Amino acid sequence: MPSPPAESGAGGCAFCAILAGTLPASLVHEDDRVIAFMDLRQAVPGHVLVVPRRHVETVFDLDEDTAAHLMRIAVRVARAAEAVFAPDGLNLWQSNREAGGQEVLHVQPRRTGDGLLRIYPDAVPPPTSADALDHMAVALRASLAPSQSKP
Question: What's the pTM?
Fold first, then answer.
């Protein structure tokens, strides 16, 4: 789901331009760390972007306190979208780098059959073996900071 065009702001960042007031936005929430505003392209009414005030390229660049606050606001916006738009479902999604296609947190209300955000390109893959899943979990646990690695 494309977001506002990068017309101005730091390094051509549309989100920085919105924060600077050089691009308009329909604000939903604003505080000292995060803003939330309507996506320009509403495939289903209620699509909101939740963006940190500090420019970051990817989720990997977010500090944990800002990331936690970002998610807290996304949950509040999701609850508001539920109340206002009564969607059939709702996605919170955040993708990174070229293959991911987007770098900000989206609150995306859903309607049954809307065709948005297909996870699998053609069909649901078969279940992965327990051994393979365990191997991936071990590698991820080892990569987490010790204070976060409780299985």
Answer: 0.76
